[in-house]
């Protein structure tokens, strides 16, 4: 009897120690996963959450996190649905962030399930999930209600847009420009002889520079050190001659517009534009007209129509930028407008918007300046250039008859490649 009691106590002690050790390991893995998730490193966070989910597969909060990771990893967004469905089945209003013992998911799981369905062309299911999420919103949460209503409308718009696909040719720029990394945000000078784009390195996003020589692009040069960037500057615009580069700097707290000049040998240190353009609010992606005297950009400064709006400013004889003017309700909506490109002496505008007649998320739009000084109603640039996922960056060339864009395709060299397209 004494022996049995001894072994029972020993077994219980070992079990408790093992449980404690396992719990500690899970907690450590959870902290690591949450750290990566908070910093937007979804691919790094995913394996930690998967390991935890293997140990506690009934945890709806971990299923929610896994779905969120998949939803933000190119090529794997379809895998988000399974996990978000499990999470959406067990949601609570009493969700608390940062706790592994939290076994239920937040109401936001319903929203992201709607996003996953929409991105994967399951529009009816997306509408159902969005409506369930909308029921959880308080009446005074107007901003989120407007956004959800827009996403529901987008799910109804998408099949209509897909009925009339736009035709274009598409050409991968090849292995000199594209590699196994993410290559994105391509901007090309008006004369077509200079290109700057972003390339995702291991620890930062690099700014790459290439020239068009004898009918091909030269091997890209990393000009991040010349600009004195910490990897948080992003290409926005090249001037007609390719000697002025506009960038935006995003430090997660603020975003401002910067400028650099090329002297024939190297790029100058990027300098922030003055306060007439930059404010303590977000200013993103400035773009210059052909003569360099007008700039359009996006900002969420007060006085707009909602979210990021498009603004225009002009340079005087002294080189100073005028007080920016909102480009009006024809272009700006209650949601975000971003990444404007203005060509043909300031008469044709390309931009991305979460509003207007779109397919969900951001779509690419085109508008023309009319003789009365107002912009035409923006025209959706069509499927499959636009998809139910975010489509946010298109650098037009050839008077808008073509352009450069970053896409994730099966025929690519890496996670995302740069392509040139031409409309038929």
From the structure above, extract its key features:
globular; 424 residues; 2 domains; Neuraminidase; Serine Threonine Protein Phosphatase 5, Tetratricopeptide repeat
Written account of the structure:
With 424 residues, the protein is α+β, with helices and mostly antiparallel strands. The chain folds into two domains: 2-136, Serine Threonine Protein Phosphatase 5, Tetratricopeptide repeat (Alpha Horseshoe); 172-423, 6 Propeller (Neuraminidase), CATH 2.120.10. The chain has helices at residues 2-38, 42-55, 60-71, 80-88, 108-119, 123-134, 142-162, 224-227, and strands at residues 168-172, 183-188, 194-200, 205-213, 216-217, 221-222, 233-238, 244-250, 255-261, 271-272, 283-288, 294-299, 309-314, 325-326, 337-343, 348-353, 363-368, 379-380, 395-397, 402-407, 417-423. Strands 2, 3, 4, 5 and 6 form a five-stranded antiparallel beta sheet that branches. A four-stranded antiparallel beta sheet has the order 1-21-20-19, with no helix packed on it. A hairpin with a 2-residue loop joins strand 4 and strand 5. Residues 2-19 have low confidence and may be disordered.
Give the SSE map.
Blueprint: H1 2-38, H2 42-55, H3 60-71, H4 80-88, H5 108-119, H6 123-134, H7 142-162, E1 168-172, E2 183-188, E3 194-200, E4 205-213, E5 216-217, E6 221-222, H8 224-227, E7 233-238, E8 244-250, E9 255-261, E10 271-272, E11 283-288, E12 294-299, E13 309-314, E14 325-326, E15 337-343, E16 348-353, E17 363-368, E18 379-380, E19 395-397, E20 402-407, E21 417-423
Antiparallel strand pairs: 1-21, 2-3, 3-4, 4-5, 4-6, 7-8, 8-9, 9-10, 11-12, 12-13, 13-14, 15-16, 16-17, 17-18, 19-20, 20-21
Helix pairs in contact: 1-2, 2-3, 3-4, 3-5, 4-5, 5-6, 6-7
């Amino acid at each position: 009897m004494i022996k049995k009691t001894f072994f029972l106590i020993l077994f219980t002690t070992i079990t408790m120690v093992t449980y404690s050790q396992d719990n500690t390991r899970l907690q450590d893995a959870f902290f690591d996963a949450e750290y990566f998730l908070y910093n937007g490193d979804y691919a790094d966070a995913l394996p930690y959450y998967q390991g935890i989910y293997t140990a506690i597969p009934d945890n709806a909060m971990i299923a929610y996190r896994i779905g969120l990771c998949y939803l933000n990893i190119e090529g794997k967004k379809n895998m988000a649905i399974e996990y978000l469905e499990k999470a959406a089945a067990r949601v609570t209003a009493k969700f608390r962030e940062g706790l592994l013992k939290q076994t239920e998911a937040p109401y936001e799981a319903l929203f992201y399930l709607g996003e996953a369905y929409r991105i994967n062309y399951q529009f009816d299911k997306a509408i159902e999930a969005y409506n369930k999420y909308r029921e959880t919103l308080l009446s005074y949460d107007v901003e989120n209600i407007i956004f959800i209503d827009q996403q529901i409308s987008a799910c109804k718009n998408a099949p209509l847009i897909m009925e009339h696909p736009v035709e274009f040719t598409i050409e991968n720029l090849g292995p000199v420009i594209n590699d196994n990394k993410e290559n994105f945000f391509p901007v090309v000078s008006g004369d077509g002889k200079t290109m700057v784009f972003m390339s995702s390195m291991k620890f930062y996003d690099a700014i790459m520079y290439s020239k068009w020589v004898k009918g091909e692009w030269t091997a890209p040069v990393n000009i991040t050190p010349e600009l004195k960037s910490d990897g948080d500057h992003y290409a926005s615009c090249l001037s007609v001659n390719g000697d002025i580069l506009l960038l935006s700097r995003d430090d997660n707290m603020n975003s401002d517009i910067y400028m650099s000049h090329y002297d024939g040998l190297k790029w100058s240190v990027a300098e922030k534009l003055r306060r007439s353009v930059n404010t303590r609010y977000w200013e993103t992606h400035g773009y210059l007209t052909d003569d360099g005297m007008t700039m359009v950009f996006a900002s969420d400064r007060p006085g707009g129509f909602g979210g990021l709006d498009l603004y225009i400013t002009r340079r005087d004889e002294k080189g100073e930028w005028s007080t920016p003017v909102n480009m009006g309700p024809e272009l700006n909506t209650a949601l975000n407008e971003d990444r404007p490109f203005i060509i043909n002496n300031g008469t044709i505008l390309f931009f991305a918007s979460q509003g207007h007649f779109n397919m969900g998320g951001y779509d690419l739009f085109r508008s023309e300046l009319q003789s009365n000084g107002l912009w035409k109603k923006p025209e959706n640039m069509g499927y499959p250039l636009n998809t139910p996922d975010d489509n946010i960056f298109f650098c037009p060339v050839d008077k808008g008859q073509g352009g450069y864009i970053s896409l994730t395709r099966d025929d690519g060299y890496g996670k995302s490649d740069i392509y040139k397209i031409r409309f038929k």
